[in-house]
Specification:
This protein has 361 residues and is mainly β. The protein has three helices and 19 strands.
Length: 361
């Protein structure tokens, strides 16, 4: 847990908490790798029955512990809340969009030799990085990559092997321990027959259910899975083909990402605002103790602030011997939480004390 995110605000607004969150994000290096960015914590103590909690603006894929997907939520009970988003700007895959060609990954499939033509990928268990599947196989549909969507883009085009559990694509990734990552890939069938069946695999362990591709060629589909790193500092991430059909079983891969999840935890404490009750219009002769206008006067739980008719704060001793009529103001502060009541006014009338009667003999 990074100390930058842990603080306690008493009788502060959620706005201040949000500002603190943003400042800490930049201090930790927004968009950079490391557990300090991807796991953060803040205490928010607020006076009132609700507080608006706001995630950092400008991100995507918001997910709250409440199930909300908006940037902000309203918390009406004390407790632990969190929001998270996938930091796709911090993709760990080196060449996930294949713009750098055949570099940055490995495959149990092979790149066939010979000139690039529409018979190059006839053998099963072969692949090529190119802008249009039809260029390397006459039976493959003609379509463009997912990244750019034009002839200048690139994708990995595969003629599926007739052997199951073969790594189509793989890369060794450096990861942060005790962090969550999202493994995301875009797939499209290149031939409608026997669509590809694939699995995500990390460190040789297959994750989730088998991915069944659509028979519609050129239809890019996104599939994701989550993985927690635990104590690991590296991960071999792979895409494994499970389809053993020799006919069909042809597909393309693009925009592979392995990105950390950024989770921000907020501990919310909602303290009630004191409800101050006063006698609105008392009257007295000569002097008046303003504290007696407070219903349930309790100095062990609250402190009180008194203001005279001109708005000047006066001491408790002065408030206990008021000699001038006018409108006085009282507020009540809970000494434990710091929460302050709404100010209440007391319209005080001080009557002149009658003089001593003269007795005429």
């Amino acid at each position: 847990m990074h100390n930058c995110y842990k603080n306690s605000f008493t009788a502060k607004t959620a706005f201040l908490s949000s500002i603190w969150m943003v400042c800490c994000l930049f201090a930790s290096g927004f968009g950079l790798s490391g557990a300090s960015f991807h796991r953060s914590f803040i205490d928010t103590t607020v006076c009132g029955s609700s507080v608006v909690l706001s995630a950092t603006s400008g991100l995507t894929n918001y997910a709250w512990s409440t199930g909300a997907t908006t940037q902000s939520i309203t918390a009406t009970t004390s407790g632990t809340y969190w929001w998270e988003t996938v930091d796709y700007t911090n993709n760990k895959v080196v060449n996930g969009n294949f713009s750098s060609g055949f570099t940055g990954f490995s495959s149990s499939y092979v790149v066939p030799g010979g000139p690039v033509n529409n018979t190059l990928l006839y053998p099963e268990g072969t692949y090529y990085v190119i802008g249009n599947p039809n260029t390397v196989h006459s039976g493959f549909s003609s379509f463009f990559d997912h990244t750019i969507g034009t002839a200048s883009g690139k994708m990995m085009v595969i003629n599926g092997a007739s052997t199951a559990n073969v790594n189509v694509w793989s890369e060794n990734i450096t990861v942060v321990p005790n962090n969550t990552y999202v493994f995301s890939v875009w797939f499209a069938s290149a031939n409608p027959a026997s669509p590809g069946q694939l699995n995500f695999s990390i460190n040789g362990v297959q994750l989730g259910t088998t991915i069944q591709l659509s028979s519609t060629t050129g239809l890019w589909q996104n599939f994701t899975t989550r993985w927690s790193s635990g104590s690991s500092t590296s991960a071999v991430i792979s895409l494994v083909n499970q389809n053993t059909a020799a006919s069909g079983n042809d597909f393309a891969i693009d925009d592979i990402s392995f990105s950390p999840v950024y989770r921000h935890t907020i501990q919310v404490t909602l303290n009630p605002i004191p409800v101050l009750s006063v006698i609105a219009s008392p009257a007295s002769c000569a002097t008046y103790d303003l504290t007696t206008a407070i219903v349930g006067y309790d100095t062990s739980t609250y402190t009180y602030t008194f203001k005279n008719p001109s708005g000047t704060v006066i001491t408790t001793a002065a408030a206990q011997s008021i000699t001038l009529s006018g409108t006085y103001t009282i507020t009540e502060t809970n000494t434990a939480t710091g929460c302050v009541s709404t100010a209440k006014t007391v319209n005080l009338t001080i009557n002149t004390k009658p003089g001593k009667p003269v007795i005429i003999p």
